[in-house]
Design brief:
Blueprint: H1 2-27, E1 34-35, E2 38-43, E3 46-47, E4 54-62, E5 73-77, E6 83-85, E7 87-88, E8 91-92, E9 94-95, E10 97-109, E11 112-118, E12 133-136, E13 147-149
Parallel strand pairs: 2-13
Antiparallel strand pairs: 1-9, 2-3, 2-6, 4-5, 4-10, 5-7, 7-8, 10-11, 10-12
C-alpha cells in the first residue's frame, strides 16, 4: 500500500507544480498597456547635457488623487542631449493616466561615489512638492513631456 501512495503524491505534486509554472508564465506578459513617454529636461531654458559627471533621473509616480491607480512607477535617465524615455519595469513606456513627477539632477564624480551636488532644488525630488504633473496619453503632441526647471537657488 505504501508503494501506491507515493506515485500518487508525486503525480499530484507534478500537476500542482506545472499549474503554478503555467500561471506564472501566463501572467508574465500581462499588466497595464504601456505607451511611449519621451521628453527633454531643460535647466534655465537650456537642454540638460547628461554626461559621466552630470546624472539625471525622471520618475513618474501615479497620481491617485486624479484617478491613476496603477502600482507601477515609470522612470528614465537623462541622456547626453537632455532627452529621457520612460520605462516601466523593463519595458519602454508608461501606463495611461495622471502622474506626479520627480527630477533628480546632480553633478557627480565617477571616482567618488559619495560626491553629489544637486543642480535643482530639493523640492523636485519629492513628488508631493515638485508641482510637476503630467497626463500620459495615447497620442501626445510634441513636447508634451518636456520639463523646464530653474537651476538650484534661482
Amino acid at each position: 500500500m505504501r508503494g501506491t501512495i507515493r506515485p500518487v503524491r508525486v503525480a499530484v505534486a507534478a500537476v500542482l507544480f506545472s499549474g503554478a509554472v503555467l500561471f506564472i508564465v501566463g501572467c508574465g506578459d500581462r499588466g497595464p498597456k504601456l505607451v511611449k513617454v519621451q521628453g527633454k529636461l531643460y535647466l534655465n531654458d537650456q537642454p540638460v547635457a547628461g554626461s559621466d559627471s552630470i546624472k539625471g533621473y525622471i520618475v513618474f509616480h501615479a497620481d491617485r488623487e486624479k484617478g491613476n491607480t496603477t502600482q507601477e512607477i515609470a522612470q528614465g535617465s537623462v541622456g547626453a542631449d537632455g532627452t529621457f524615455t520612460l520605462q516601466t519595469r523593463d519595458k519602454e513606456g508608461a501606463p495611461l493616466g495622471w502622474y506626479k513627477v520627480t527630477v533628480d539632477l546632480a553633478d557627480t564624480k565617477a571616482d567618488d561615489p559619495y560626491y553629489y551636488k544637486a543642480k535643482v532644488d530639493d523640492k523636485y525630488r519629492d513628488y508631493n512638492k515638485s508641482g510637476l504633473v503630467f497626463e500620459v496619453v495615447e497620442s501626445p503632441e510634441p513636447g508634451r513631456y518636456d520639463i523646464k526647471l530653474p537651476a538650484r537657488g534661482k
